[in-house]
Amino acid sequence: MDTISAFITLLFVMDPLGNVPIFLSVLKDVDEKRRQWVLARELLIALVVLLIFLWLGGALLDILGLKQESISIAGAIILFLIAIRMIFPSPYGLLGETPEGEPFIVPLAIPMVAGPSALAITVLLVSSDPNRMFDWTLALVGAWAAAAVLLMCAPLLLRALGNRGLIAVERLMGMILVIISVQMFFDGVGAFLHLNETPAF
């Protein structure tokens, strides 16, 4: 995976357009003067969590004795489930009931931005090529910055696209993520089968 592909995948997984209605709903009870500050704080927390997983995820895999192929397959399954949820959303919403008052870390930073699929992708990137940390960091920060801009402009996006427009974009992104997840699964299975091939004599 190159830097651009990593950027696009991470941006789709963070799903900023799909999160716009959720962010607006969670922040509706927060004082209007504090909303942008709270949103900026939650986005920065999400970035820190993502960077920690990016830089320390490889060491965690080594400690647990996990191989790249297992991460690729597990990441593909998680990504596929997220994509299916984007295409066929639950009538009960993504998060169910959320605590009243000002949000802190949950649910905006985690899991809406730094969700399990985004964290799995960051670990997968590092395990696929540990020597390209600069590229992966650039892709991650770029995807986060793009998602942050879209979420900071959430009220404008909702007015411009409307609920139907946001739903249509989210489902289109879900379709693309399904394709990416299937490819990741095939890559992981292919690498596993190649790794366990019995040499012929």
TrEMBL record:
Organism: Pseudohalioglobus sediminis
PANTHER family: UPF0056 INNER MEMBRANE PROTEIN YHGN (PTHR33508:SF10), UPF0056 MEMBRANE PROTEIN YHCE (PTHR33508)
Family: Belongs to the UPF0056 (MarC) family.
Subcellular localization: Cell membrane
GO cellular component: plasma membrane
Keywords: Cell membrane, Membrane, Transmembrane, Transmembrane helix
Entry keyword annotation includes Glycosyltransferase: no
Membrane topology: Multi-pass membrane protein
TM regions (residue ranges): 6-27, 39-61, 73-92, 104-126, 138-160, 172-195
Family annotation (InterPro entries): Multi_antbiot-R_MarC (IPR002771)
Protein name: UPF0056 membrane protein
Keyword Membrane: yes
Signal peptide: none
